[in-house]
Amino acid sequence: MFLDGQPVTRASDGGFFYLGFDRDAGPKAAIRVDGRGGEASRVLEIGKADYDVQRIKGLRQVYQGQASPELEARIADESRRKAQAFASRVEHDDFRGGFSAPLRDFRVTARFGGQRIIDGRPRPPHYGVDLAAPRGTPVYAPAGGLVVLADSDMLFEGGLVMIDHGQGLVCAYLHLSEVDVMRGARVARGERIGAVGATGRATGPHLCWRLKWRGRNMNPMLMVGVPGPA
After folding, report:
1. Which sequence spans correspond to the domains of the chain?
2. Could you tell me which of 106, 111, 86 has the C-alpha nearest to residue 172?
3. Rounded CA gap, 31 and 25, in Å?
4. How does DSSP assign the chain, residue by residue?
5. Is residue 122 classed exposed, middle or buried when 0-12, 13-18 and 19+ CB atoms within 10 A define those classes?
6. Which of 27, 71, 160, 225 is 20 to 30 Å from 64 at the Cα level?
7. Which residues make beta-bridge pairs with 35?
């Protein structure tokens, strides 16, 4: 499959592939699919979305002033591990039936893509959806996939699980109080993967749910309830 003339992915054995557009995508995109029976092309028009502005005060500081060499080394190592997980390219198509919500009951406290102003300073957009729920609330895999990172003590994210749901469509589940899966495990849709917490850099109990596809930040809520192809 080609996007604006560049190869981006290939279909699974069942013929399914994922294509997504991030927060800052342009107004149009040209896609081309090549197959045994020929090729098909289409130009897509991409609608604009409105994003919130959120002001946050009192967020826990990881360090004040200059970080120690040990802390800098930890940040670099965790950044490398997260980048490696987001670079996963599992040749499955667990995404094909859409997602269930990872929590049974929740309140959205921050939508995807909003501008954040933390203690008066503008920060990059928030590329996740914050789902507030009591500490200990079970978190379930919204679709099947391969666990590509599982750690209960990341500096910024706290308890973190990352799952490749197929073809590099990787979800991250942040601030968990419990991590119930291990790296390399296959999980099924609806399987418990952890519990809501306020670990890492968080102001209160919630699940920050993030989704990335091949370097593009996606809104995971847009996948909830999507029916599978006929």
Report:
1. 2-45, 53-223
2. 86
3. 14
4. -EETTEE-----TTS-------TT--SEEEEEEEETTEEEEEEEE-------EEEE--PPPS-SSSPPHHHHHHHHHHHHHHHHHHT------GGGG-B--SSSS-EEEE-TT-EEEETTEEE----SEEEE--TT-EEE-SS-EEEEEEEEEETTTEEEEEEE-STTEEEEEEEEEEE---TT-EE-TT-EEEEEB--SS-SSSEEEEEEEETTEEE-GGGGBTPPPP-
5. exposed
6. 160
7. 38
Residues 132-156 have pLDDT tens digits of: 999 999 999 999 999 999 999 999 9
Residues 19/214, Cβ–Cβ less than 8 Å = no
Amino acid identity of 109?
T
Q: Which CATH architecture has domain 53-223?
A: Distorted Sandwich (2.70)
Considering only CA atoms, give the Rg of the chain: 18
